[in-house]
Amino acid sequence: MSDRLLEPADDVRLPVPAGLGRGLVLASVFVCAACGLVYELELVALASYLAGDSVTHASVVLSVMVFAMGIGSLLAKRLRCRAATGFVLVEAVLAVVGGGSAMALYASFAWLGGAWTALVGFSLAIGVLIGAEMPLLMTLIQRIRRQDAGGALADLFAADYVGALVGGLLFPFLLLPFFGQLTGALLTGVVNASAGGVVVLWLFRHDVGVRMRWGLLAVNGAVIVLLVAGTAFVGVFEREARRAVYGEDLRVAVRTGTQEAVLTGDADPTAHRRGGKPLQLFLDGRLRVCSADGYRYHSALVGPAMAGGPNARVLLLGGGDGLALREVLRHEGVEKVTVLEADPGVVRLARTDPGLRGLNDGAFDDPRVRVRGGDAFLRLREHAHGAGSGPAAYDVVVTDLPAPGQGVDAKLYSQEFYGLVRRALAPQGRFAVHAGAAAAHPETYWTVEATLRSAGLRTSPYAVSAPRDWGFVLARRSPGGDARLPRPRAVSSRTGAADPPLLRAPRGRVDGLPPSTLTRPRYG
C-alpha cells in the first residue's frame, strides 16, 4: 500500500492540533537543515585533512552539493503524491549516506590511495537527497493547513536557515571536539533518521497504510541501529585505517582539538642510527618531524638568523614540536624565547611524549621559554599597536610553519603579515622563513621572497643541499634599499651529527612575481 493521493487540508487526520502539527513539521525542517550542513562541513574538513588545499575542496563540495540539490528538487516532484512515504525514505537514505560518508571517505584514502572520487560522489548523493527534502516538506505542511505558497515557503526557509546556523555552530564546537569526525557524522545520521521518522510515522501515520507504515518503521529502525552500532566500531576502524596510512609502527594518535597528531617509529629518537625506525610526527597527515634528518631542516632554518647579530629576544611562530626551539636555545646570548603556537595540544605532546621530548631535549622546560596560544597574525597585530620598535622588539623571528599554500596558513605568508613582522623586529633584527621547495616549486618559493621584499625587508634566499629540497629566506629590517644580506653557506646544528646541512643559493630565480596579499593569495 502507498500514501493516499493529496487530500484537501481540512480532511487531514493528525494526532495533535493543526497548529502544533505545523510546528512539528517546521521543527523537522530545522533538524534536517542542521544535519545537512554538518554533512557538508564534515566532507570539507575530512577532505582538507586527507589531501590538503582546503579552498579547493570546500569549493568542490559546496558547488557540487548546490548543483545536486537542484537535481534533487526536480526528482522530488515525482514523489509529491506520496510525500509522507517519500520523505521518510529520503531521510533514511540521507542518514546512511551522510552519516557513513566520513568513514567511507577515510577508507577510500587509507586503502585505495585517494579520496577525490569518493568526495565528489558523496557530495553529489548528499546534495540530491537534501534537495529532495524541501518540496516534500512543502507538500506535507500544506496538507495540514492551506496557505499561499509565498507564506509557506517563507516559514520553511526560515526554519531551514536557522537550522543551518545551528548545524554550522555545532560542528566545530561540539561534534568535532567531543566526538570526532567519524562518530560525529554517525550521530548526525541518527538524529536525521529520527526526525524523518517522527514526522511521518507518528504525525502523518494516517496517510500511510498499515503495512507500509510497519515497513517504513522497520527501515527507519534498521538505519538507526546500524548507525548507532557503527559508533562502537569507530575506534577499531580508525586504528586499522591509520595503520594502512602510516604503517605498522604507529605509536601514538591523538586529536589535539584542531588537528590529528600521529607519532610513528621508535620512541628512542636515536634508534634510526642502529637500524631502527626513525621517529616521525605527522600533523593532519603531513610529515612535520623526522628524527633521521629533521635536525638538518631546523638547524638550517634557525642557524643563519641566530648567527647574524644580537639574539637576546626571539619569537618563534609555530614550532610546537620543540625542535626549532631546541636550536634557538643552543645559541649563546638568548635571554627570552616566545613561542606562538596555535595548537596547545602539539606543545602538550612535545612536553610529555618520551620520544618527542627526547628529540627536542626538553626545550619547553627551559625557564627562558614562554608559550602563548592564539592566532599569530592577531598576536603580532597586538604587538604592533603596543611595542613597536622599542625595548620589547624582537632580535630574531623564526616561522616554523608548513610550506605556503591555499590553506588557513596562507595569511602567514602574506604582505600584510610580513609588514607586522617587520614592525616587531628590532633595528638589526632578522627574520627566517621556510618558503617551501625551492627546486620543485620555484614560483611559490620566489613569491615568498618577493612578498618579503614588498613589505620593506631585505632578503637573502638560500636552500639546503640534497637529499631534501628545503628552501628558506633570511630577511632583515631595513629603512630602505634592497641590498642583499651576506648569503649563509654552512651551519652547524651543534648536535654532533656527521652531516650538518650545507646551504647553497637556490637556482632558477623567478623575477617579476607579484606579492601575495590577504585579498589576493598567490600560492597555488
Could you characterize the architecture of this molecule?
With 524 residues, the protein is α/β, with parallel strands linked by helices. The protein folds into three domains: 9-237, Up-down Bundle (Growth Hormone, Chain: A); 245-286, no CATH class; 293-504, Rossmann fold, CATH 3.40.50.150. The chain contains 14 helices and twelve strands. The strands form two sheets. Strands 7-6-5-8-9-11-10-12 form an eight-stranded mixed sheet. Strands 1-2-3-4 form a four-stranded antiparallel sheet, with helices on one face. Helix 3 (83-112) packs parallel to helix 6 (210-232). The relative contact order is 0.09.
Short description:
With 524 residues, the protein is an alpha/beta fold. Helix content is 53%, strand content 14%.
Number of strands: 12
Poorly predicted ranges: 1-10, 480-488
- Tell me the number of helical segments per DSSP (H or I, 4 or more residues long): 14
> How far from one another are the termini?
56 Å
Q: Strand sequence of the main sheet, in spatial order?
A: 7-6-5-8-9-11-10-12
* Helix and strand element order: HHHHHHHEEEEHEHEHHEHEHEHEEE
Helicity range: 40-55%
For the biggest sheet, the summary is: 8 strands, mixed
Overall number of structural domains:
3
CATH top level of the largest domain is Mainly Alpha
Residue share in β-strands: 5-15%
- Computed CA radius of gyration, to the nearest angstrom: 28 Å
Shape: elongated
Integer average pLDDT: 87
Structural class: alpha/beta
Mind telling me which CATH architecture of the largest domain this is?
A: Up-down Bundle
For this structure, the CATH topology of the largest domain is Growth Hormone, Chain: A
